[in-house]
Amino acid sequence: MTFSFEIKHELAPSDSSLRPVGRAGVIHTPNGDIETPAFIPVGTKATVKSVMPESMRELGAQALLANAYHLYLQPGPAIVDAAGGVSKFMNWNGPTFTDSGGFQVLSLGVGFKKVLAMETDTVQSDDVIADHKQRLAHVDDDGVTFKSHIDGTMHRFTPEFSMQVQHQLGADIMFAFDECTTLLNTREYQVKSLERTRLWALRCIDEHERLTVERSHKPYQALFGVIQGAQYEDLRRQAAGDLGAMNFDGFGIGGALDKHQLGTIVRWVSEELPAGKPRHLLGIGEPEDLFIGVEAGADTFDCVAASRAGRNAAVYSLDGRFNITNARFRDSFVKLVEDCDCYTCMHYTQAYLHHLVKAKELLAATLLTIHNEHFVVGLVAKIRKAIIDGTYYELKAEFFARYPRSASS
After folding, report:
1. Which residue of 53, 87, 252, 375 pairs with 226 in a disulfide if CB–CB is 3.0 to 4.6 A?
2. pTM
3. Can 131 be counted among the known catalytic residues?
């Protein structure tokens, strides 16, 4: 089977003046189908930290996303290729995504996170670096030279090299190499960067097509273009129009964004992109943001937040997040979250999880990550079902009647 996307149901917007962009559908890949909307847990180094792939399947995950930058550095793409691709390498045997490595190269290079809230007194610059950070990446029109965070060795990613690495990793869906800016960059730099990313996209397509022919004995790998443009409507729409006209199988919505504008930015992009191709919202996965993204047209999401929260003793629930280290859980012999049917909640108490975290036992990260991933994956599954059933807005109202809503929602 090759790659394709079917739209099954459209979500009517809450505002009748807006065009419908939210939808439910199915992405068909050589390693299986992904019913959308879907949350794609992140297995950075070919593993969701502390959790077996079998457990991820049992909790409802349909696909996993691995990180090209990290797998390039260790164990190396040739090893993954020899194993039969990242899915077989990690014993997942289902659909997989790999990102291009661009975000990791550039975010490690300047020390900033993906999402930044802009303050009115923020000073913008063409060359930014986070406080107390050393620059590890240098961008030019041909690619990025960067220093490994593992051993300090120097490496270089170009659009062609990113494609070569990702073809060896063998994921069903991969992303074009792009420059990920920050909101601290000036508009002038954003414009230059957008053109650089556009030219890199063309180079990625050319190399992808060459490698697809060269590796025709391998299953087809879909290539998604990545839409940048920061918080500027004209740049986002321009990028979506430029890349939307290219021969991509789908699109990632990435880059720096102010979370207060998440829905607005995703909708700008969705309105410009070809309706018949899937849209992936990169690095977004907090529960309240999933509703925003779906309504604005995103089909799939990935984020490390659920697993990272679990490793830090934070627990997702319909009443918001709580920390299991709180003293009130020390002798609480009830299930971790009352209205959850995940493996952790069906077999372990709050007191036991509290003990594991306090004792610094590795099992704590496993059990809490299983719960959090189940919560997020399951929430998006409920959103998908509600779109199909025509009850999406009822589900949303019911969810936010309990879940603390942030200002960005």
Report:
1. 252
2. 0.93
3. no
